[in-house]
Structure formats: structure tokens, C-alpha cells
């Protein structure tokens, strides 16, 4: 193992990032536990003490698993890098005699499959431990295994050609290969966005047109008022895996569709469903999807440009426990190490997302009723056992949506 300056920078970033996240997790646990015996005043007439305490215990259980993950993840990363794991895997594939690109594809795919197997026990504990204990899991071991198999096959079918093209560009497209790779990546993302609703999602769930005529008429009137056109409104059988509810847009252009989890429709009144849909329409009307797509495009372009530079630097490989230089090793190391540094800008993306949520709420209030949206959100918080008392710093770092008290206070001010 060769330790250089970059090794020290990597270790420092890994230590600081892990320490910050563990500290935030401890703060969150302490804050939730401290406020578990009293329902916040703004929710006292809607949430019982028993439901509030269930949410606290659910949050604390997830935090215990999160802390374990925060300890294991850096250890596994160190085994892959400075521990020589990736270097050993590279040697093994070199002995097979595969050609350059396909040897690289095999290296990256095998690394991802091994990582998936390492993470699998935590996923099992979350699904059949925590989610089952609190009454949210409705999946069976057979369905869990089937989903895992479909996800793996789908990932291989889509990922192998993508990785092969990127490695081919890295080897033969010159110094600016990363520009062409970025174009390929953006094309892939847009294709997946188009294909997901009709080709991918139905592999996991059934989607039926919204059959409630009165609700459909109410929602269609909302869509007409907002000037939103879609291929239809569909109900997804999310209840066969989880009791959690949700609603979302998918697709783009003329192929947009609106999807409601059946659990969401079962738990909300029609005016509350309308308000939730108005919030989702707010994301569209305030161009949040376009803004996030542009942000993603710029971040990925910057990342690929950085990879283009790092791939030519011997210290990058040596500092991360790899003996030789190759496009595949550069890509693999970048995939492993970049999250270590992205941790420090995570609050910026979370803040952007929360700003968008406030704007979408403001739009929803203009189209429907602040009271209906408040009632719908509170019922969703209750049904999903979402904590009403998150630690502000933890929330600022991790949560894409505003904390429940802040969001409800914002909506209540609109009523005034």
C-alpha cells in the first residue's frame, strides 16, 4: 500500500464526513427522544400521543440501523481502496485474458455486484425487521427475492452496454472523451425517464386507471385549471409491498402520467388528494423538474470533467491502493470515492429541494385549499409514522422536504 498526499486527503475527508454524519444522527436521536412524551401543539388536535410515540420509536429504530451503516460503509470502502480489494479484483480479471474494454466492464460489474451482496443484509433487516415491526412491510420473502432478481437482471441489461460505451470512449475518444461520455449519459437518463412508466415500472407493480369517477372528475378539473396535460391518472398497487403512501409524476413531454399509491387514496379524503396533486403540479408549473434536470446535467458534466483529469494522474491510483492505470480502474475508483466528498455539499442540494417544496405548497394553496393540504399532510405524517420533532441540523443536512412543524406553520400562515 502506497500512502501519498491524496491518500491523506481521502482519509481526512472520509473521517470528517463520517464523524459529521454520526454526530448528526446522535443529535437526531436525542432530539426525537427528548420530545417523545408530548405531541407538538400544532398537531395536538390531530395526532394522538400513541401515534406520536410510535413515530418516535420508528425514527429511533431507523437511526440505529443508520449508525451501523455509517460505521460499516467507510470500513468497506477502505477495504476496496487502501485495503487492496479493487486491486485484487483487477488482477483476477486480468488473468482471464479478456480484451481491454470487456475486462474493464467485468471489473466494474463484479465490483457493483459484490457491493450489492455486502449491502443486502442491511436491506433485509430494514424490510423484515424495522418495517415489519412497525406494521409497514407487506412484502414476502418470495417477493423480496423476485424483486431483487428483476432489479439485478435489469441493471445488468442496461448497465453493461452503458459501461462498455463509456470505457470505449475513455480509451479511444481522445482528451475530451468526457464530453462524449456526458452526452451518452444524458441520453441514457432521458431514455430511462421516457421508458420507466410504460416499460420498467410495470415489471414491479400493476397500474390501473383511476376508477373513482367522482375523484377523477375533480382531479381532471384541477388539471384543466393548471393547464397540465398527461396520458392519464393511474393507481399503483403499492400496498403489496408497503403501507407507506405516495404520489408522483413520471415521464416527460406528452408521455407524462400521474401515479397514486393505492395506500394514499385509501388514507385521504378527495379534497386532500386534490391538494396533494396540486402540490405535485406545483413542481411542474414552477419548472422544478427542469431545474433539477439542468442541475443534474451540470453536476454530471463537472464530475466527468474531473474524472477526465484524474484518469491521467498516477497519484490518483497509487493513493487509493491500485497498482496500475486503466480507464476501468479510474471509473471504479471515482464511483467509490466521489460520495466521500459529495457529503460536504449535500446540505446545498437538500436546501434547494426544500425551497422547491415550499414553492409547490404555495402553488397548491392558490389552486385548492391550505386547510385541505394541511389535513392531508398531517394524515400522511401519521400513517407513515414520520417524526414531528426532527433535529433542525439533521433535517437541514438530510431531508429533501421541510420538517413537519415548519411546513405546517408555513401553510397555516397562508390561511391567515
Brief sketch in words of this structure:
The chain has 416 residues and is mainly α. Helices cover 72% and strands 4% of the residues. The protein has one domain (1-416).
Description:
The protein is mostly helical. It has one domain. Helix content is 72%, strand content 4%. It has 16 helices and 4 strands. The protein has a 4-stranded mixed beta sheet with strand order 1-2-4-3. A hairpin with a 6-residue loop joins β3 and β4. The radius of gyration is 23 Å and the shape is globular. The protein starts with a helix and ends with a helix.
**Principal-axes shape call:** globular
Low-confidence stretches: none
Q: What characterizes the major β-sheet?
A: 4 strands, mixed
Task: Please state roughly what percent of the residues sit in beta strands, choosing from under 5%, 5-15%, 15-25%, 25-35%, 35-45% or over 45%.
Answer: under 5%
The helical percent reads over 70%
Structure annotation, total helices: 16
Sequence-ordered SSE layout with sheet pairings:
Blueprint: H1 5-34, H2 49-80, H3 85-94, H4 100-133, H5 141-172, H6 177-200, E1 207-209, H7 213-226, E2 233-236, E3 247-250, E4 257-261, H8 262-267, H9 270-285, H10 288-310, H11 314-318, H12 327-342, H13 346-367, H14 370-384, H15 392-398, H16 404-415
Parallel strand pairs: 2-4
Antiparallel strand pairs: 1-2, 3-4
Helix pairs in contact: 1-2, 1-15, 2-4, 3-4, 4-5, 4-12, 5-6, 6-10, 7-9, 9-13, 9-14, 13-16, 14-16
Which properties best describe this structure?
single chain; 416 residues; mainly alpha; four-stranded mixed sheet; 16 helices; globular
Amino acid at each position: 500500500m502506497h500512502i501519498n498526499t491524496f491518500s491523506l486527503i481521502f482519509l481526512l475527508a472520509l473521517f470528517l464526513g463520517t464523524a459529521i454524519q454520526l454526530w448528526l444522527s446522535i443529535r437526531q436521536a436525542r432530539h426525537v427522544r427528548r420530545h417523545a412524551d408530548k405531541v407538538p401543539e400544532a398537531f395536538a388536535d390531530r395526532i394522538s400521543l400513541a401515534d406520536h410515540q410510535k413515530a418516535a420509536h420508528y425514527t429511533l429504530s431507523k437511526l440505529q440501523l443508520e449508525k451501523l451503516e455509517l460505521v460499516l460503509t467507510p470500513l468497506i470502502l477502505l477495504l476496496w481502496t487502501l485495503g487492496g480489494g479493487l486491486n485484487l479484483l483487477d488482477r483476477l480479471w486480468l488473468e482471464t485474458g479478456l480484451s481491454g474494454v470487456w475486462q474493464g466492464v467485468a471489473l466494474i460489474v463484479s465490483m457493483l455486484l459484490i457491493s450489492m451482496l455486502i449491502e443486502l443484509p442491511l436491506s433485509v433487516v430494514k424490510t423484515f425487521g424495522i418495517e415489519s415491526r412497525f406494521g409497514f412491510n407487506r412484502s414476502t420473502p418470495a417477493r423480496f427475492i423476485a424483486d431483487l432478481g428483476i432489479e439485478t437482471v435489469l441493471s445488468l441489461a442496461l448497465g453493461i452496454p452503458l459501461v462498455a460505451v463509456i470505457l470505449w470512449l475513455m480509451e479511444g475518444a481522445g482528451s475530451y472523451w468526457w464530453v462524449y461520455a456526458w452526452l451518452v449519459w444524458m441520453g441514457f437518463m432521458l431514455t430511462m425517464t421516457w421508458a420507466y412508466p410504460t416499460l420498467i415500472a410495470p415489471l414491479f407493480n400493476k397500474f390501473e386507471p383511476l376508477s373513482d369517477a367522482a375523484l377523477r372528475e375533480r382531479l381532471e378539473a384541477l388539471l384543466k385549471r393548471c393547464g397540465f396535460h398527461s396520458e392519464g391518472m393511474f393507481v399503483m398497487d403499492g400496498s403489496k409491498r408497503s403501507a407507506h403512501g405516495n404520489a408522483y409524476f413520471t415521464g416527460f413531454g406528452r408521455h407524462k402520467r400521474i401515479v397514486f399509491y393505492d395506500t394514499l387514496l385509501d388514507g385521504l379524503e378527495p379534497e386532500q388528494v386534490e391538494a396533494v396533486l396540486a402540490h405535485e403540479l406545483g413542481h411542474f408549473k414552477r419548472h422544478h423538474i427542469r431545474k433539477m434536470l439542468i442541475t443534474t446535467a451540470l453536476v454530471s458534466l463537472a464530475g466527468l470533467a474531473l474524472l477526465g483529469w484524474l484518469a491521467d494522474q498516477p497519484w490518483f491510483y497509487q493513493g487509493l491502493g491500485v497498482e496500475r492505470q486503466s480507464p476501468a480502474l479510474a471509473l471504479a475508483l471515482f464511483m467509490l470515492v466521489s460520495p466521500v466528498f459529495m457529503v460536504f455539499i449535500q446540505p446545498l442540494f437538500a436546501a434547494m429541494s426544500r425551497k422547491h417544496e415550499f414553492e409547490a405548497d404555495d402553488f397548491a394553496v392558490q389552486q385548492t385549499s391550505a386547510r385541505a393540504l394541511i389535513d392531508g399532510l398531517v394524515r400522511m405524517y401519521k400513517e407513515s409514522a414520520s417524526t414531528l420533532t426532527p433535529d433542525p441540523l439533521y433535517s437541514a443536512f438530510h431531508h429533501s422536504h421541510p420538517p413537519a412543524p415548519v411546513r405546517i406553520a408555513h401553510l397555516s400562515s397562508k390561511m391567515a
